[in-house]
């Protein structure tokens, strides 16, 4: 809402500048409000086209978050809104691009109908009544605006489609059109159609020019006629004292020369060149960094169509909660997909891993390549002995909100289904050692539809539980597992999972009571709330985090979003 208000404020201020500015007086007389709307929308577009790329500079955001250059936790949390800010800028660009083109269509019509015989330099048309459609194609700016709106339309519809039906292919390919958009944006400034007056002191707008023949159109004061009976050929003397009534009439201010007009200095490149260069440099750096394929050490299949991929890469370092982008050329030459790290490299082991749920064409093809499915009768080696994996490139790691979970004294982590992956790396880190972190109590809530899903990280949860019991800190982690759909009482199979069976609940969490209990046990503390799961759960947690309680406990909400 605040970003929308800022854009509206900028639009209105620029609108008033062109509506009231004397340097645009003659152009405004010709074009009317079309001038003001086109220039005001252009200023909003310049700002948003400048900022829309910054949230996509993932390396920069990860550096700011991880290097502690941003000391304030509240400011660091703003970095986690990068995707939301990117979408807001994109929607704003779409809306004001349509408005900008509509205003220029009106301008083309006005250029044709209001052709100026007096100020030829202002005209975009060659003669009065010229076909406006001819102006649209003959003038590069008008055509360029139309093409840019078409590209923005593809960008926004691609985003809307992926949000509606989760088709990542459409989103990916349409969003790569932003290169075309910025090329058109750079070319847009070359036309110089709209011009402003440069000599306001010598020629105030609406002034009276005695060097021109105006007898047929202008009623000249009698005093002036007696002083200059023939003023059509002689220049107006500079040392003449003008009669008082003539000076006081603002409409008849004297001008000493004809108005001079100049095209606007191109400003778009000034706005977008910096962020565009920064983005290109970062993409080049990411390409160089991820140019060497990783070594896949093992592939493990889990229940409910989930695959774990463990790999190694030289000089790869990551923090718990971060994610990487995987690119497999044999699956797709262009597509890359983000996956949260479930295992981070440490000082003692260089292995890191991800869990991916097989949903969609990309993950299905990737799974088939990893598992080497074959219809032949030849003997297939066990998956742990396979070494002929496809080439896999890893870009990252990149920051996420879950890096902050270890920086709170108390954290509430809520996962829905495969949304548990961001917390797995945090649990693995705590298993290696928890005393070096600020975190002193962790509430871990995991909601799944089927019992088999809990087996993805059942071993990890049991090992962490047993470790904390051995260290006399059983209260460090509070594990609650919820089975939302069941035909009866079920338990996680296996004697070693007894610690989890006692924490397995049937149904859905009663979130309001859960928050009240946590607030009561942690009076006057700030609790970090982290969620990765369905939007329905996310909205409930966000609402409860913003609610007040009688214990003085403050909840800070964080949500995972790629």
UniProtKB/TrEMBL annotation:
NADPH oxidase that catalyzes predominantly the reduction of oxygen to H2O2. Can also catalyze to a smaller extent, the reduction of oxygen to superoxide. May function as an oxygen sensor regulating the KCNK3/TASK-1 potassium channel and HIF1A activity. May regulate insulin signaling cascade. May play a role in apoptosis, bone resorption and lipolysaccharide-mediated activation of NFKB. May produce superoxide in the nucleus and play a role in regulating gene expression upon cell stimulation. One of its GO terms (biological process) is defense response. Residues 289-404 form the FAD-binding FR-type domain. This is NADPH oxidase 4. It comes from Sula dactylatra. InterPro entries: Cyt_b245_heavy_chain, FAD-bd_8, FAD-bd_FR_type, Fe3_Rdtase_TM_dom, Fe_red_NAD-bd_6, FNR_nucleotide-bd, RBOH/FRE, Riboflavin_synthase-like_b-brl. It is found in: Cell junction, Focal adhesion; Cell membrane; Cytoplasm; Endoplasmic reticulum membrane. Its EC number is 1.6.3.1. The gene is Nox4. It is a multi-pass membrane protein. It catalyses: NADPH + 2 O2 = 2 superoxide + NADP(+) + H(+); NADPH + O2 + H(+) = H2O2 + NADP(+). The chain crosses the membrane at residues 7-25, 45-64, 85-106, 151-170, 177-194. Keywords: Cell junction, Cell membrane, Cytoplasm, Disulfide bond, Endoplasmic reticulum, Glycoprotein, Membrane, NADP, Nucleus, Oxidoreductase, Transmembrane, Transmembrane helix. PANTHER family: NADPH OXIDASE (PTHR11972), NADPH OXIDASE 4 (PTHR11972:SF206). GO terms for molecular function: NAD(P)H oxidase H2O2-forming activity; superoxide-generating NAD(P)H oxidase activity. GO terms for cellular component: endoplasmic reticulum membrane; focal adhesion; NADPH oxidase complex; nucleus; perinuclear region of cytoplasm.
């Amino acid at each position: 809402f605040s970003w929308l208000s800022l854009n509206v404020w900028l639009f209105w201020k620029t609108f008033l500048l062109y509506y009231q500015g004397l340097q645009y007086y003659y152009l405004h007389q010709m074009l009317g409000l079309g001038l003001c709307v086109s220039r005001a929308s252009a200023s909003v577009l310049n700002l948003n086209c400048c900022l829309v790329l910054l949230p996509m500079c993932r390396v920069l955001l990860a550096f700011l978050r991880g290097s502690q250059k941003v000391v304030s936790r509240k400011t660091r949390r703003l970095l986690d809104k990068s995707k939301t800010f990117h979408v807001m800028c994109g929607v704003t660009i779409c809306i004001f691009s349509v408005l900008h083109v509509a205003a220029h269509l009106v301008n083309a019509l006005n250029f044709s109908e209001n052709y100026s015989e007096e100020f030829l330099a202002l005209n975009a048309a060659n003669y009065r009544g010229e076909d406006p459609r001819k102006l649209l194609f003959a003038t590069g700016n008008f055509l360029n605006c139309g093409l840019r709106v078409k590209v923005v339309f593809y960008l926004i519809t691609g985003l809307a489609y992926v949000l509606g039906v989760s088709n990542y292919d459409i989103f990916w390919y349409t969003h790569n059109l932003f290169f075309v958009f910025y090329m058109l944006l750079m070319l847009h400034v070359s036309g110089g159609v709209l011009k402003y007056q440069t000599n306001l002191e010598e020629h105030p707008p609406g002034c009276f020019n005695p060097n021109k023949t105006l007898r047929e159109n202008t009623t000249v004061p009698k005093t002036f006629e007696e002083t200059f009976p023939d003023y059509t050929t002689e220049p107006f003397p500079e040392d003449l004292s003008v009669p008082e009534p003539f000076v006081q009439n603002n409409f008849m201010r004297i001008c000493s020369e004809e108005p001079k007009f100049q095209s606007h200095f191109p400003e778009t490149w000034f706005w977008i060149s910096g962020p565009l260069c920064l983005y290109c440099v970062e993409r080049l750096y990411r390409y160089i960094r991820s140019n060497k394929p990783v070594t896949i050490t093992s592939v493990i299949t889990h229940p409910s169509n989930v695959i774990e991929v463990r790999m190694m890469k030289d000089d790869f370092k990551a923090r718990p909660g971060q994610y990487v982008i995987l690119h497999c050329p044999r699956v797709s030459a262009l597509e890359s997909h983000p996956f949260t790290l479930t295992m981070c490299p440490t000082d003692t082991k260089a292995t890191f891993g991800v869990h991916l749920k097989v949903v969609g064409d990309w993950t299905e093809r990737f799974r088939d390549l990893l598992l080497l499915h074959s219809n032949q009768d030849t003997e297939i080696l066990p998956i742990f002995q396979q070494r002929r994996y496809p080439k896999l490139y890893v870009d990252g790691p990149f920051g996420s909100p879950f890096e902050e979970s270890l920086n709170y004294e108390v954290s509430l982590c809520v996962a829905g289904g495969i949304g548990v992956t961001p917390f797995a790396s945090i649990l693995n880190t705590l298993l290696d050692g928890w005393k070096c972190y600020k975190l002193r109590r962790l509430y871990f809530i995991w909601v799944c539809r089927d019992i088999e899903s809990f087996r993805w990280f059942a071993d990890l949860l049991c090992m962490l539980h047993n470790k904390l019991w051995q260290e006399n800190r059983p209260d460090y982690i509070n594990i609650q597992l919820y089975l939302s759909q069941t035909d009866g009482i079920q338990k996680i199979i296996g004697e070693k999972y007894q610690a989890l069976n006692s924490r397995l609940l049937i149904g859905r969490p009663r979130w309001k009571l859960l928050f009240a209990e946590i607030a009561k046990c942690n009076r006057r503390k700030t609790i970090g709330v982290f969620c990765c799961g369905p939007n329905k759960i996310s909205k409930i947690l966000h609402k409860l985090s913003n609610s007040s309680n009688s214990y003085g406990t403050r909840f800070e909400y964080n949500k995972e979003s790629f």
